[in-house]
Amino acid sequence: MNGENELRAGSTRWLATYCALAFGITWGLGSLFIFAPKFVEATFGPAGLGNPIFILAVYSPAISALIVIGATGGRPGLAGFLRRILNWRVDAVWYGFAFLIAPTCTAIGAVFYRLGAGKWPTGPEEGFVSQLAALGFMLILGPLEELGWRGYMLPVLQRRFAPLTAGIIVGIVWGIWHLPSFFVAGLPQGAWGVFPFLLAILFASVLFTGMFNGARGSLLLPMLFHWQLNNPMFPDIQPYDVPAYAVGALALFMLYPRGFRRESAHTTVFS
Q: How many other CB atoms are found less than 10 A from the CB of residue 128?
């Protein structure tokens, strides 16, 4: 029965349903921030952690994945899917990867920033306590996206494509999904270039793919890595994070080619 549910969850129909839900929720709510900002702010507050519309838009990949998993696998499928968050028994090297690759790429990007801009990037203006609070909020915000991108979409695509190709496809979809945030007042993306952001997120998706397969489909590790990507304590090095994450993706591909081979690809959704 589980095999039958896996086939259903991985069908083109349900993959398309997942994408339609994720984009429909986020882009639909994002359009309210773009075209009716005064109404949204007066009713729910500015875009950010205190705005329920914003939170719902950010959570849409997770919500969409849970809807698809529930529809194809029922309660047993949902239970098996969510157990992957608790899959912590993986090689310790991947914990080091999840916590260290983002600061390492940020440090490399800071060097590129210095070479390109002629100065070192400055850190966040907020005080340490405010940064620590923001870091705590980020633990329950961005990482939940991984229920959709690496929890559902990547294993399904790895049934049809080699891991590198599947990771690139997820990266393209993941990057495009973020586009409304570039037009919402008050979000940091407003100061970034769209194309460099899409490239950086594409290289990051390659990193996620190798780690995901190395950690045997654990969702805990991608969530920890995503948390680090959103770390508010890091300086803003846009667009110099692009070559930094390109270096990181190339290094992982060369040092751990096994994570990008079909025989190592994790392709199950429910476990």
A: 9
Three-class secondary structure of residue 231 per DSSP? coil
C-alpha 66/C-alpha 2 separation (Å) is 16
Chain CA centroid to CA 146, Å: 5
Cα gap 151→161, rounded to integer Å:
16
| Residue 158 φ then ψ, to 5° | -70, -10
What pLDDT tens digit does each residue of the chain (271 aa) get? Answer: 578 899 999 999 999 999 999 999 999 999 999 999 999 999 999 887 788 999 999 999 999 999 999 999 999 999 999 999 999 999 999 999 999 999 999 999 999 999 999 999 987 666 555 555 555 556 566 789 999 999 999 999 999 999 999 999 999 999 999 999 999 988 888 889 999 999 999 999 999 999 999 999 999 999 999 988 888 788 899 999 999 999 999 999 999 999 999 999 999 999 8
Distance of alpha carbon 82 from alpha carbon 87, whole angstroms: 9
Q: Does residue 38 contact residue 76 with C-beta atoms inside 8 Å?
A: no
End-to-end C-alpha distance for the chain, whole angstroms:
13
pTM beyond cutoff 0.85: yes
Q: Return the structure tokens found at 222.
A: 């991608």
Are 69 and 81 within 8 A, CB to CB?
Answer: yes
**Alpha helices by DSSP H, the chain:** 2-9, 12-35, 37-44, 52-83, 92-117, 128-139, 146-148, 154-157, 163-177, 194-214, 220-229, 241-255
Residues 69 and 62: beta-carbon distance below 8 Å? no
Three-point CA angle 25, 30, 32, nearest 5° = 110
Q: What's the farthest any 2 CA atoms get from each other in the chain? A: 61
